[in-house]
């Protein structure tokens, strides 16, 4: 009996200790347990995208995940900027509507956060980047001086978070927009480990500005502020530098969080399809297939391949946020005008010129979020968009020329003795320069009615429909080579 009492007392002491010294105030399971999720913000930032992302974050914070309270949100940013008012609205939401004591929002930037997107990153509680990450610099949307001035004023009113022993302050966010702003690192006299980043205006706003000692200047006046991951880490502008998302998860001990995973193969596929060389290859295949389809009777595999390539080209740009229905409409108008020029109006006139312009404009504008470039970044993007179309066009012409020559070589008889015997049997020299009409489709060989007789002919590699007017351009022994007139 004494042993039972002794054992009972030990159990009672153990459970009382768990209750008194455990992290939770009670041993009863809480209604919510912590959880982590990932929210993506990719492509040009618009009001629609900013509002949708804001609603998503509010939903997770309010409702949680299956009775789990979301206390960690990874905001995956991969953006070249966007509407400045939308970026400011989202930054205001992060700094004023999200309680860092309950939910920590960490910006993970694997590739870029330019212009207004860098302002959003600065509004997060922490920033994690990779070595190749680009922060700041010119973006896909150019801002006027009035917009920048108004934005800096708005940012100066926001309570930006502190991280890693440093007060990030509004000066960092404003410096990504205002090239005339100078920002330096300051240390507190009484506690040198406490650092802050101030411009002169924000330093003057501090209750005791003389207690701060100026250190390194991280951004000088008169320059566009564009920094890479290592530079941002060395200047302590970001919290951590990682190489992969797995390192990010280990850094915050979130390896087992099923909701916090890297984007799947679909994201990698889209980035691959958006690369200039792959985009040029897709367009080139589409153009070649469309050309072959135009020279083949009926609808065949060429139409299917061409349609697939163009759908793939526009789909990845729709997902990336650079293409819209306006570009698709331009493409349709261009195709309609070119078809009108080819099948209805003889020659090449205004319809052909306008159609070609619409076609080129549609493909180029689908790869960028602006119309007229206004900064170096936009100029480089437009150059890349134009190069994609030029490479695809030159590749298409080269491929069609090469295939035509190969077909001609394949149709050329190489046995001179056989040619001599054939010339004895049939002499078609009298047909040189004569015109006629194809009786069967030439693919590239077939029958044609020339000078009142049916002759076995071959085109120069071009596919011709039955009933096409042709002219004899060359006699190769027993073979008659014709060309569409």
Structure description:
This protein is of the alpha/beta class and 485 residues long. The protein has 3 domains: 29-263, 2-enoyl-CoA Hydratase, Chain A, domain 1, CATH 3.90.226; 266-323 and 366-409, no CATH class; 414-484, Beta Barrel (OB fold (Dihydrolipoamide Acetyltransferase, E2P)). 46% of the residues lie in helices and 19% in strands. It has 16 helices and 18 strands. It has helices at residues 2-21, 47-63, 84-96, 116-123, 145-155, 169-175, 200-205, 229-234, 245-251, 265-274, 276-294, 301-320, 325-343, 350-365, 376-411, 416-425, and strands at residues 33-42, 68-78, 104-109, 112-113, 126-129, 134-136, 162-163, 166-167, 183-188, 195-198, 212-219, 226-228, 240-241, 435-438, 445-450, 453-459, 469-476, 479-484. A 5-stranded parallel beta sheet has the order 1-2-3-5-13. It has a 5-stranded mixed beta sheet with strand order 7-8-10-9-11. Strands 14-15-16-18-17 form a 5-stranded mixed β-barrel. The termini are far apart. Mean pLDDT is 82; it is low at 14-33.
Q: What's the short story on this structure?
A:
The chain has 485 residues and is of the alpha/beta class. It has 16 helices and 18 strands.
Low-pLDDT windows of residues? 14-33
CATH homologous superfamily identity of the largest domain: 2-enoyl-CoA Hydratase, Chain A, domain 1
What CATH first level of the largest domain would be assigned?
Alpha Beta
Main sheet attributes: strand count, strand direction, barrel closure: 5 strands, parallel
Structural class: alpha/beta
CATH topology value of the largest domain: 2-enoyl-CoA Hydratase, Chain A, domain 1
Q: Percent range for helical residues?
A: 40-55%
Tally of helical segments: 16
